[in-house]
Specification:
Layout (H helix, E strand, L loop, with lengths): L4 E6 L2 E6 L10 H16 L5 E6 L4 E3 L29 E5 L2 E3 L1 H8 L2 E4 L4 E3 L13 H9 L1 H10 L3 E2 H6 L5 E2 L5 H14 L2 H14 L4 H13 L2 H12 L10
Parallel strand pairs: 2-3, 3-5, 4-6, 5-7, 6-8, 7-10
Antiparallel strand pairs: 1-2, 8-9
Length: 250
């Protein structure tokens, strides 16, 4: 890949880094294509179990679309910011330091988990310029923080600091300055060490069931769960033999 986006992998964890710090890691058409390419690379590699998405430079995770370029393809099936209209098949974690705004917030919401530093700031700042949310924000934000809080952020475009973001569930965890990537990698390695079939099944049931009526969601959970019962039986046998007692390995 080119300098704008880096893809690196160590063992089971892949890291995708937006490196356009001169533009607060704003995304243009070229970097959107590289983000999409990075996701495709992650999805195609069975040894890569978790993807960490982050931004370089220490000022911003991503401040959204590059408003100087204004060349994103709003009709691209993957989404203007690269892959925001796609759902990855494996877990993703955003490691956030600094500004996480507009399309950058939508990239963070695309991830399953979000780790942030105390100086991180979140917001739908596109509201100020009359730009719509078209990278999944209107759909994912309510699923993460609830309808009322999502409407507050979307309608007002106000800034949300890291403390509030953690309190309302927008952020999974706030860590010490400079520790966002290390913590995301630590968490990614933990997820990668779990039995994958059942974790991925539960993840899929949770994501796909979020918008379903309860009865349909329970049926989805039942169907997906039955497909991995053999894995569950092996895990139960290990526990019965004494492995993992008293929370060990969690």
């Amino acid at each position: 890949m080119t300098e704008a986006v880096h893809f690196e992998q160590e063992a089971a964890v892949a890291v995708l880094t937006i490196d356009r710090s001169d533009r607060r890691n704003g995304v243009d058409a070229a970097s959107a294509a590289l983000l999409r390419e990075g996701l495709e690379r992650f999805e195609a590699d069975n040894s890569a179990r978790v993807l960490v998405l982050t931004g370089a430079g220490g000022e911003a995770f991503c401040a959204g679309a590059d408003l100087k370029a204004l060349d994103l393809d709003v009709d691209h099936p993957g989404g203007p910011m690269g892959f925001t209209r796609l759902t990855p098949s494996k877990p993703t974690i955003a490691a956030i330091d600094g500004w996480c705004l507009a399309g950058g917030l939508e990239l963070a919401l695309w991830c399953d988990l979000r780790i942030a530093t105390p100086k991180s700031v979140f917001g739908c700042f596109e509201r100020r310029w009359g730009v719509p949310l078209i990278d999944g924000g209107t759909q994912r934000l309510p699923r993460v923080v609830g309808l009322g809080r999502a409407l507050d952020m979307i309608l007002t475009g106000r800034a949300v600091d890291a403390e509030e973001a953690e309190r309302i569930g927008l952020v999974t965890e706030v860590v010490a300055p400079g520790q966002h990537l290390d913590r995301a990698l630590e968490l990614a390695e933990r997820l990668a060490a779990f039995p994958q079939e059942t974790m991925l099944s539960d993840r899929r049931a949770t994501i796909e069931g979020a918008g379903l009526p309860l009865a349909d969601g329970l049926e989805l959970e039942h169907r997906l769960g039955r497909e991995v019962l053999e894995v569950a039986a092996r895990g139960a046998a290990r526990f019965a033999a004494g492995e993992g007692r008293h929370g060990e390995g969690v």
